[in-house]
Amino acid sequence: MSGEDQGYSAADAASTLGWWLQAGVDVAIAENPRNWLKATAAPPPNVRQPSALAVSQALETLHLFRDWLGSAPSLPLAAAGTTRVMPQGQESAPVMLVAEMPAREDAAEGKPIGGEAWHLMAKMLAAIGIPAADAYTATLACFHAPGARMGAEELAECADIARQHVTLAKPKRLLLLGDAPSRALLGKPLAAARGHVHKVEGVRAIATFHPRFLLNRPSDKALAWRDLLLLMEDDA
């Protein structure tokens, strides 16, 4: 990193030092009212509707892609009772975080990672010199769906959409948080993917634990710290 003063307070510095020690080192609104109970005509039997992936690949800017994520009805896990949680951050961020599905506390805050998990994530980023506000944060599926399980078909579709997301977001590095993003984008469970450098759409990618997991397993923070160091190594 540049080493320039990021304007951290004494409290920020203490928080970052604490991490080092522990680690061992949304809705679209139409202008006209809509009758949601009105029966809709079925498409002609021989006309195939475009898939969510096909639509996403036709979008050429991050702005259009995010608008689509915020309104498309056919995304994986979209259903009644789910809460849509949108990605946050700017294009060409120093790091893009792709986390597992949003938990209840994430959905309550309207953030891909919320609550104590985000506070820990911010410390982890600060420890490698990246202000949390500079990270681009997203989830593999943008829905909080209580009790839902992602099957193989949904995982594959989410993976394809996530790759398009990475392509349009243009991050410098990619950090996959949890087992589902690792399986989707690397084809490996987290246990097998950790400790290795991967490429996703040409972007250096590292898999590590979701901070929510680390809150329950603080002994694994040392392993997460090694993953962060690997993330920040220069490409050969």
Task: Give a structural overview.
It is a single chain. With 236 residues, the chain is α/β, with parallel strands linked by helices. It has a single domain (51-232), classed as Uracil-DNA glycosylase-like domain (Uracil-DNA Glycosylase, subunit E). Helices cover 41% and strands 11% of the residues. The chain is built from ten helices and seven strands. It has helices at 10-22, 52-57, 62-71, 104-109, 115-127, 152-169, 179-186, 190-193, 211-216, 221-232; strands spanning 83-84, 96-99, 136-139, 143-144, 173-177, 198-200, 203-208. A five-stranded mixed beta sheet has the order 3-2-5-7-6, with helices on both faces. The chain is globular, with a radius of gyration of 19 Å. The model is unreliable at 1-5 and 26-30 (pLDDT under 50).
Structure, briefly:
The protein has 236 residues and is of the alpha/beta class. It has ten helices and seven strands.
Keywords:
11% strand; 41% helix; 236 residues; alpha/beta; globular; five-stranded mixed sheet; Uracil-DNA Glycosylase, subunit E; two-stranded antiparallel sheet; disordered N terminus; 10 helices
